[in-house]
Amino acid sequence: MIAWHDSPVVIGGRTILHRVAFRAKAGELVALVGPNGAGKSTLLRALAGLLPGAPKQDSRRVAWLPQGARCAWGLTVAEVAALGRIPHGDADPAPVERALAACGLLELRDSRIDRLSGGQARRAMLARVLAGEPAVLLLDEPTADLDPAAAHEVMALLRVRARAGACVVVVLHDLGLALQHATRMVVLADGRITADATPGDALPAAAAAFGLPYGLDKRPRLLPPVR
Amino acid sequence: MRAALAVLVLALLGLALLVGATGFGVPEAAILWELRLPRALLAALIGGGLGLSGAVLQGAVRNPLADPALLGIGGAAGLGVVLAFYWGLGLAFAPALPLAGLVGAALGCCVLFAFAGRAPSAPSLILAGVGLSALASAMQVLALAFAPNPYALAEVTFWLMGGLADRAPLHVALAAPPILLGGAIMLRLGRGLDALALGEETAASLGVPVGRTLALAAAGVALVVGAATAVGGGIGFVGLVVPHLLRPFLGERPSALLAGSARGGAALLLAADLVARAAPLLLPLSQEPPLGVLTALLGAPFLVRIARRMAP
Fold first, then answer.
1. Residue B122's pLDDT band (cuts 50, 70, 90)
2. Residues A142 and A207 grouped into a single domain
3. What residues of A are in contact with residue B202 (Cβ under 8 Å)?
4. What is the mean pLDDT of chain B?
5. Looking at residue B236, which CATH number applies to its domain?
6. Which of B191, B202, B208 lies at the smallest CB-CB distance from A69?
7. What is the pLDDT averaged over residues B2-25?
8. Does residue B168 surpass a pLDDT of 80?
9. Which of B40, B36, B34 shows the shortest CA–CA distance to B10?
């Protein structure tokens, strides 16, 4: 379980988040959607306890993956994943192995992360989060840079985590992914929550936030992989 | 690899005892204990400290171009020592020189981090270092221009060139405690520096006290660089070159480079000092080339190489 219902967040004189009440429970996969600058990343940081003045979170329980996460050095994929064990202060190889396997990185374990494709590097960063085996996963656009199949794979992986009892909050730009995989969709616009419902019910608010029409469409489209 | 480096350091230490102004071979006891051993120990201590400082700074600012001298910390320490020389503090009270170096290095670290802001990006930090270097060397020149007498001018100039000639056991006693303390502080930062590879916010989300880690890194670097500069003068580039050379062997994880960089730095400076000592014996030179010049000759091409590799 993770929650935020605190005073407004003002950065540089601009109110990024108004009084926002957000909570996510174990077993949920919450998609956080909204236009650029709506405050999604700030809300995720607030939940992660990273805003100045926000209560610190237990790093063993809550893991955060920033947008465009990057590693300054050419660590190997296995070394990057092992960084996820830092909160636990151990070098337990078992969770690291499980994380690498879950992200399909076992063959790439000894490759340097700065020599991987964007999508592979992104999965390595996700493996770092999973290696800590946190109860709460806060992920900022984990599917950016991924091709559609890989994006669905990551979302399916997160769904499995949620079903196993984790609480997953994901910032997504791809409303299709949110509709297909999330158990709940929260729409943010101008620092306010304008909808908080099942993805289907929240879609009108999401469309309004983006200023886009919505409706049924019979044209061919990509479907999530069949399992 | 780390064991091999340790063996290399020990071998160079042994070799360093066998080369000196009197020629090659085992010297008489007085020379061995009063001159060669202190000099070899200082080369190992200062080289090790600078190598470790480079690895820690690079990890802290996430940039392979970071080096105590390049970021102006060495220059600030040098300014402190020049001022101590200038007012004759070193003659009155021997530990005044390393203390002045320490104060200079600590102020340099503070200015550097304040200059670059709360969350320094690598380019802003390096530019701040360039500014600090220029400021420190200008102030050093100012102190020299107002030198009280030609003797003081010559003494300071000679010291600024960097070198370990004619160092006595007193110098070891002055430099060893701060360098060992700074080294001990920095060797414990591995986990924090590893986490910082993912950025300061992610490191914080992993439960690493980022501010404390950076402050300890600055304190460790200041202790080492202050004492090393006070005793050895301006010796640069060791911290830049050593981690760079070791990455292909030890991997890129900052924590994996700390102990290795200390050993590698000790080996590098012992070897450079051996070259400095052997040069007048083998070449028609009237005196030793300054050690700081030798490390700069080695390091400058590395700087260009690393910078070029970083360019997109």
1. low
2. yes
3. 64-66, 69
4. 87
5. 1.10.3470.10
6. B202
7. 85
8. yes
9. B40
